[in-house]
Amino acid sequence: MKFTRTQQQAITTTGSNLLVAASAGSGKTTVLIERLVNRIKNDGYNIDEFLVVTFTEAAASELKQRLRSKITEELINEPSNKHLRAQLPKIGTSYISTFHAFCNQVIRKFFYLIDFDPIYRISDDVESLVLEHETLSTLMEELFEKDDDKFKKIYERFNLTLYDEPFINMFLDLYHRLRTLPYKQDFEELTKKIYDVDGDLTTWIYFDRLNESIKSKVKEIKHYLNKAYDLARIHQHGYEEQYPSDYDVINTFEKLLDKDFAKCYEYLSENNFERFTTKKTKHLDEDIKNLIKKYRDEAKKMFDSLKEDYFSFSMQSQIKFLRENKPLVEALFYVLNCFDERFKQIKRSKGVVDFADLEELALKIITEHEDAREYYRKHFKEILIDEYQDTNSMQEEIVKAISVGNNVFMVGDVKQSIYRFRNAEPEIFQAKYSDYRKGKNGKLINLNENFRSRKEVLDFVNFIFCQLMDLETFEIEYDEMAKLVFGQNDYLTEPLEGPFIHLNIINKVSVKESLEGEYEKAEIEAKHVAETIRKLIDNNTQVYDLKRKELRPIRYSDIVILARTKNNQEVFHEVFKEYNIPLLTPELTGYFNSIEVLTVLSILNIIDNPLQDIPLVATLRSPIFNINEKDLIEIKVNSTADNYYLMVKDYVEKGPDDELRNKLKYFLDTLHAWREFALTNSLTDLLFKIYHETNYYEFVSGLIAGKQRQANLDLLYERAKLYEELSSNNLFKFIQLVRFFEEVEADLTQARTLSDNEDMVRFMTMHKAKGLEFPVVFIVDLSRRYNLADEKKTILWDRHLGLAFSYLDMDYRVQYKTLLQNLLKEEIRRKQLAEELRLLYVAMTRAKEHLYLVGTSSDWEKQTTDLIELSSFDDVLLPKSERLSFCLLDLILVALARHPEFCSYELNSIPSSAFLKHFNYIPSLDINIVDNPPEVEEVLIDETTFADDYKKYMSDFARRLNFQYPHLEKTKHFAKQTIADIKRAQTLSEYQYHHEKISLLKPKFIDNFDPTSRGTAYHLLMQHLDYHKEYTEATLTDLIDNLVNQEILTEEQAKLIDKAKILKFLATPIAQEIKQAKKLYQEMPFTTLVSSKFVYPNMQDDVDILVQGVVDLFAVLEDYCVLLDFKTDKVINNDINRIKQEYQIQINVYKDAMTRMYQQKEIRTYLYLFDIDNYIEM
């Protein structure tokens, strides 16, 4: 494979830390694999001397597989390279893993340094959530009982409802975030220091940051005032005369910021913008008047927001807010630390750790113990980190500690950092990028050649993002080094006709921002996308196959639909059914809302407390008891009881309908039995009883998606079992926990029952699409507003700025925003906007051939009018204010405002020539504004024709449904089988167990090795015996030790071998004859055709079966041959006949195969039983 110059540099450069900034589709994984192989071959290193870290198990597995394939490929060219060959068996146990897996290895190896019990297991997210919830609830009860002042202080401050759940959710969310910090004590001290303010706000630790933030807002206000003034001056609007007054207000304020910050409060309270003028406006076009007013209103809105956020209260009041919040901060950390300690104790007692524990414990071992640190520094020749943009501080500290300062290879793309919600810190990558670019502390190599997408797609991505991304706002500068370069030079000899970029806007004025509106928008977009896909498929649209280097017709599996969230996937499912388009989603949501789970949860609710009307009615209405709506009404009208349970009991006593009374009596008896059972039995036993006593588990299998429904019930059972192991056998608490999962949206996903390899259109989130590629990409729901929930939380946090929350006047129960709260909110929003833009970049760079951008506009004419002025903007990077949008469609549109075709067709303007000079080529854009959303055409059935053909249809249906395959017996056996398959089939035909196997624990005095392990050990040794040598116990011991050293035998296997039994076998007459053999074959593989009657006597049809097997030992003597099979089976009561019968077919197949090879010789067949040191002649 040929590599580019920069790829070759990334493969061969050594001697310093190396950061490879690898853009989308640049072949970074290939480069990483090539670098590993290069260092193994040229530097003589072993694969287990490298630490290769990635962020998912799937990625680690893929790296191992690709490395194995690459080494195998190299060995074809260099078959004599023993060092390279020796790496293959080491790959499986090498340090190619996730960060968490490496941390786990560190703990397992050095647990004694921190006095940690090495017998533990790793809990999953749901298990951890259960434990956290249980631990916090218990701790809160204890602190309430102790009347703990600090706990009471934060509980009263942050729990503003009648329930504990909001407080618990807030507390655990904060706890999770703090656990990602490598040095939590430093963060706690920093946060407390922030709330120390002495007299004057100008001495505050964040005063300079506050000042810069205000100045940035002033700059944006001036920008909008200037835009309004420029338009007013051109069109002679009256605002031209008002502008100096507005500008003077903001300019005077800006000067005061540097001279006397305290006077800013007084100044802003006395000065404001004047009312917007309406002079000289009658002659102007309405659009121009509205645009001038819009810009001026935006400036005024920002000015008012600045006053409200930072100057609503005097400087002394703001100082007071900070000071009086400090005791709450101290109390909060006190309770967090109490919970952390208790949670660790609980996990230790249960022998579990979570993923955060793995990082914490590994960091503790490596940073506090030099022995461990030096071990890894000496062991690892190089540390390679894939997807480095997703690293967090904890992981960075671990890598720093075990590196020697010049042996870390990092590869990633900060433009694709989209996992901040999983605690990724792209600023770590960005800081190194900036330093290494200047030659400080390491080297930077830039891989920006893209080998995935066609040139038009790459040029369009560059066109969009060079206008949007900058270092200040979006954490990355989209300069020449960041731009994608087309690298697939042999893409097509005859280029396809475009366009390849499609902007599809649904112009739906009636769609409103509401729940119904969101659904309507999703349905409209889904129908439009389905219609477009239908045309692509029906027209046999050609796509380029990179592997085959040729064009081919498009398939469903070539298409992916990407959305910001998975909320609308059910809408797409329903719409695509109407268009007969197969759609695959990565996971099904709404587990707790699936009807089968709701039914069982309703039953559990009334077992716990039958005085709950909704669960009770749901249970009665379910297929289990089959009470219909009419019966439910009758029950209610025949009773005056306060709740439905008593109404049911009343009806059983005096209801008029005997059939209904019997149904309800059965229900009450069943409920009573379940309640009695629940008192003395486990939750899982109760669920099992409900499932099978009512036949509900079997019933759901007959419904549509029956396998899916049974899988959901299985999952509920598994979660109940997990809850019992972790917590208690308390039905009420389990029900409460389920409600908690629903409230925090920790919904379990339904188990997928479809194959990912089917020819189906994929629907997935942008996050899920990371690392994937598709010929055709639809990005939908672009008009969805960002989720800004993080900046609205009760307690705001930032790892660099600390914690912040509002000041609460406890007397009046009124909350006031603090300066710190506003600063954190601003930082959280900045990071959120940057993440959303990077997410759009990831989504767009998945496309290989066609990119469709699909969004809905509430008023397209108005939206395009607002863009007209941008078309004349000269600079490449758009003004910051234009890039601070809260939906992806707005970002795309402001960047398209200077696209030549978009300007011409939609804005009726000409883009800035100064701007266009920066581009050699701008790809064509297919613009499709849909004013009338598509409707699915209904196909009506001709009832007359259908009635005439009814009998024929039904006859055909009956024939098909009653069809029986004439060769049913053949379907039970494979045409190609191994001896093990045949033996297993024989065993199953003789012993048909219809009951569940009971597994008992072995007594401790019995070894832990099963018969299979012993048999494997003996066979490995017999395979390597030299029958022409004379063995003694000493020489046999040497042979076994040598096999262990060569890693053919493990030490555990070697201990299973009884050397005396081997020597006894070698002394037997048959073994002595074998020594004289002309030819001797050990572990001889063969393939032969065998009659099915020979293997399966009861099979009616006679067909050939291809059988594969391995003969343990075959010796060719002068007059005959010996076929010998070794067995380690236990012989009970000298039952030789049983063993002979068990292996007869196997030996017959062996003998038949060997007879075909040696037709002129007699073949004598034996089993040698090591248990009795004797032969059985077969």
Brief characterization of the structure:
The protein has 1178 residues and is an alpha/beta fold.
Short descriptors:
single chain; 1178 residues; 7-stranded parallel beta sheet; 29 strands; globular
Describe this structure in words.
The structure is a single chain. Helix 21 (515-538) packs across helix 22. It is globular and about 120 Å long. It has 47 helices and 29 strands. Residues 510-516, 744-756, 936-940 and 988-1002 have low confidence and may be disordered. The protein has 1178 residues and is of the alpha/beta class. A hairpin with a 3-residue loop joins strand 18 (796-798) and strand 19. A seven-stranded parallel sheet has the order 15-16-14-17-22-11-23, sandwiched between helices. Strands 3-2-6-7-1-8 form a six-stranded parallel sheet, sandwiched between helices.
Poorly predicted sequence stretches spanning 5 or more consecutive residues: 510-516, 744-756, 936-940, 988-1002
Largest sheet: 7 strands, parallel
Q: Beta-strand percentage?
A: 5-15%
> Which of globular, elongated, flat, extended, rod-shaped describes the shape?
globular
Structural class: alpha/beta
Q: How helix-rich are the residues, as a percent range?
A: 40-55%
From the N-terminal CA to the C-terminal CA, the straight-line distance is: 56 Å
Mean pLDDT: 87
Spatial extent as radius of gyration: 37 Å
Task: Tell me the number of strands.
Answer: 29
The helix tally amounts to 47
- Record the strand order, biggest sheet: 15-16-14-17-22-11-23
Please write out the topology:
Blueprint: H1 5-12, E1 18-22, H2 28-43, E2 50-54, H3 57-77, H4 82-85, E3 95-98, H5 99-110, E4 121-122, H6 125-146, H7 149-158, H8 165-178, H9 184-194, H10 207-235, H11 239-259, H12 261-270, H13 286-310, H14 315-350, E5 352-353, H15 355-368, H16 370-379, E6 382-385, H17 393-402, E7 408-412, H18 426-437, E8 443-447, E9 449-450, H19 455-468, H20 471-474, E10 485-486, E11 501-507, H21 515-538, E12 542-545, E13 550-553, E14 559-563, H22 569-578, E15 583-584, H23 595-608, H24 613-621, H25 629-637, H26 644-654, H27 658-680, H28 683-693, H29 696-701, H30 706-726, H31 731-743, E16 761-765, E17 774-779, E18 796-798, E19 802-804, E20 807-809, E21 814-816, H32 819-844, E22 847-857, H33 860-865, H34 880-883, H35 888-896, H36 900-907, H37 913-916, E23 925-930, H38 943-948, H39 950-961, E24 976-978, H40 979-990, H41 1011-1023, H42 1033-1045, H43 1051-1056, H44 1059-1066, H45 1069-1074, E25 1079-1091, H46 1092-1095, E26 1104-1116, E27 1120-1127, H47 1136-1157, E28 1162-1169, E29 1174-1177
Parallel strand pairs: 1-7, 1-8, 2-3, 2-6, 4-5, 6-7, 9-10, 11-22, 11-23, 14-16, 14-17, 15-16, 17-22, 24-26, 27-28
Antiparallel strand pairs: 12-13, 18-19, 20-21, 25-26, 26-27, 28-29
Helix pairs in contact: 1-2, 2-3, 5-15, 6-14, 7-14, 9-14, 10-11, 10-13, 11-12, 15-16, 15-17, 19-35, 21-22, 23-24, 26-27, 28-30, 40-47
